Amino acid sequence: MDGHVRRLLNRVAIALAAVATAALMHLFRHSSTFCFTTSPAYSSLSLAPFPRTSCDAASRRVVDPDLRLAKLRSTPRWRRHNAALSASLVEPLRRLRLLGNSSRVLCIAAGAGQAVDALRVAGVGDVTGVDLVDFPPLVRRADPHNLPFFDDAFDLVLSDDPAALTGALFPSRFAAEIERTVRRGGAIALAVDRHISLSIVATLFKKSRVVDVRNTSLNGSSASIVILSTNAERH
Ligand SMILES: *[C@@H]1O[C@H](CO)[C@@H](O)[C@H](O)[C@H]1NC(C)=O
Ligand SMILES: *[C@@H]1O[C@H](CO)[C@@H](O)[C@H](O)[C@H]1NC(C)=O
Ligand SMILES: *[C@@H]1O[C@H](CO)[C@@H](O)[C@H](O)[C@H]1NC(C)=O
């Protein structure tokens, strides 16, 4: 009698487990089919209809960084900015022999990485982009007041954001970190608001001297590009 009840209970348990497994498998197959077959149709960047299920919405939140970059590069704004950077930053730096294809370059306050892109397109191989917010694939996260790089790690540190210096919480700390990471005899190139007095820039960058200033239009706003040479006799 006891054994009979136990056998009966066992059979019920096995049946329940089988039903549960079948239900799970059905659920899994259903949802994975849905994700794999439907989501590529709404490719990440195109304007897609409202998500029909949570699975659909989740798959669209993951934007492929390379796709996003390709999309950005194709915009007139990006191309205009690159042309301006090439004329007012890359070419002058090359003429002054402060930039070569093998230079190690750091772009700070890099935003979406336009300066990184412009330099790579110009043939510079070793370019790092950082900003307070990362923006893959060209820009990773770093605090400009506390740069995660060794002393003298770069030949050139630059920023194409006119608000980088004036918007810095501690401008002198910002300048000191740049000077720390540029090697002796290297260079610094900064976009600054055109109304900023050059003497302020010169005062902040204690170990460098201004070698070139030119007016330019970046991102629709007028700016000056200041190029400084870090003093080979410092330390
Ligand atoms: C730098 O790279 C660019 C693009 O690859 C090339 O056109 C240029 O000749 C290179 N410059 C030097 C000095 O090698
Ligand atoms: C360009 O301007 C837009 C807004 O007008 C801003 O969001 C973006 O960060 C700017 N880019 C640079 C590199 O200054
Ligand atoms: C840049 O523009 C400002 C005014 O917008 C002017 O005072 C200055 O002389 C110009 N600098 C150069 C190098 O052209």
UniProtKB/TrEMBL annotation:
TM regions (residue ranges): 12-28
GO molecular function: S-adenosylmethionine-dependent methyltransferase activity
The keyword Transmembrane is assigned to this record: yes
Span of domain Methyltransferase type: 106-189
Keyword Membrane: yes
UniProt-listed Gene3D superfamilies: Vaccinia Virus protein VP39 (3.40.50.150)
One Pfam family from the record: Methyltransf_11
InterPro entries according to UniProt: Methyltransf_11, SAM-dependent_MTases_sf
Keywords of the record: Membrane, Transmembrane, Transmembrane helix
Entry protein name: Methyltransferase type 11 domain-containing protein
